Amino acid sequence: MSANKSFSSETSERYSRALFEVANEANEIEKVEKDIKTFQLLLENTSELKNFIHNPTQSLETQNNVINLLSEKLNFSNNLKNFFLLLIEKRRIFFVLKILKSFLILCSKKRGEIKASLISSKDLSQTELENISKELSSSMQSTIKFDYKIDKDLIGGLKLQLGSIMIDSSIKSKLKKFEQQMLEK
User: Fold this and answer.
1) Enclosing H/E stretch for 167
2) What is the pLDDT of residue 6?
3) Cβ contact 43:95 at 8 Å
4) For 101-133, how does the pLDDT look when each residue is reduced to its tens digit (9 = 90+)?
5) Residue 107 in contact with residue 75, Cβ under 8 Å?
6) Is 1 inside any structural domain?
7) Owning domain of residue 160
8) In the predicted model, what is the mean pLDDT of residues 18-40?
9) Are 124 and 146 contacting, i.e. CB atoms less than 8 angstroms apart?
10) What is the C-alpha to C-alpha distance for residues 76 and 72, in angstroms, rounded to an integer?
11) Distance (Å, rounded) from C-alpha 147 to C-alpha 119?
12) Are residues 118 and 95 in the same domain?
């Protein structure tokens, strides 16, 4: 195991790669990806489900019943349902968020997409976001997908995190630089 990775990260990546391979062989990556996004949304908005997933005292039978019921109601692919059941059996269900996040990253990489974080001081229109994405995509020669957020504290400008590259053109950042320069003199 790498010195830079924790046990949970290493384990999560292994499980996500396994799910990716199974979904790829069954030719249902898009279906599994859609189901995962549905599950993540449900998990984010339902504290009972979140508590249920993170509660190690739940019996295997109860966890299996809940996953079977959810899979049936939400029409999950059989591979995803069986994957969840495997996580329960191996007592790894509490890693599910990390595993699913890692799976989605694998899906993005397969499509040649690069994830980026874009933070602006004001609400940008869909057209503005598409223009920024097109411009960056052409210069990076890959499709750029944004996690877009608004931060009113920036006063003006943008912050862009693209892998290890950080571009900060916010007024807040510029003011901090000026302040630092004034303190140094």
Assistant:
1) strand 165-168
2) 66
3) no
4) 988 888 888 887 777 788 887 888 888 888 887
5) no
6) no
7) 114-184
8) 93
9) no
10) 7
11) 8
12) no
